[in-house]
Design brief:
- The chain is α+β, with helices and mostly antiparallel strands and about 160 residues long.
- It is built from 3 helices and 7 strands; from the N terminus they run αββββαβββα.
- Strands 1, 2, 3, 4, 5, 6 and 7 form a 7-stranded mixed sheet that branches.
- Strand 1 and strand 2 form a beta hairpin.
- The longest helix is centred in the first third of the chain and has 22 residues.
- The structure holds 8-OXO-2'-deoxyguanosine-5'-triphosphate (8DG) and magnesium ion (MG).
Amino acid sequence: MIIAEDDLNLLRIKLQELQHTKNRAMSPAPEIGVAVFILKDNKVLFGRRRSLSIAAHTYALPGGHLEFGESFEECAAREVKEETGLDIKNIELLTATNNILSDTVHLVIIYMRARLSDPDQIPQNIEPDKCEGWDWYDLNNVPERTFGPLRAMLQGGFNPFPNAS
Ligand code: 8DG
Ligand code: MG
């Protein structure tokens, strides 16, 4: 039987998710995620997640897990590049949240902000198995199904823009 490359990728991602879920259940530990508000004019980049084990089908910021030995800024630049192809600059730490979502899921999320190195760059959907696509959203008009902790933060008045009152 010949398996198409796309199906193989999907299988790989499913396997990774299963492994993640299994690890969480076997040895629960906080996970460190880095999520990046990329600011362009008065908009922010969101992508709709596919069926990942956490936050499936919700809109979230580009980002991922902090790797061993990595700074927050390095992680932000790497994840943004891997997921969107964009190069970012002026990467700054904004805040962190501690989200205990269930008996097995405890996320510490580091929120960063950044600007596009070249403002004309267009986001590409480099990991189509993980994301349905990227788009710029006004913060007053964020997608309905934004990932819970992120939505709560924004609804609570958090604003990633500098000089926001
Ligand atoms: P990796 O495991 O390949 O390093 O990264 P990933 O596959 O891109 O990880 P991810 O699920 O996108 O993100 C890492 C963790 O951060 C995950 O537990 C979910 C959590 N997270 C939030 N809010 C956000 C957000 O706005 N964007 C992203 N990408 N992740 C978020 O709690
Ligand atoms: Mg990600």
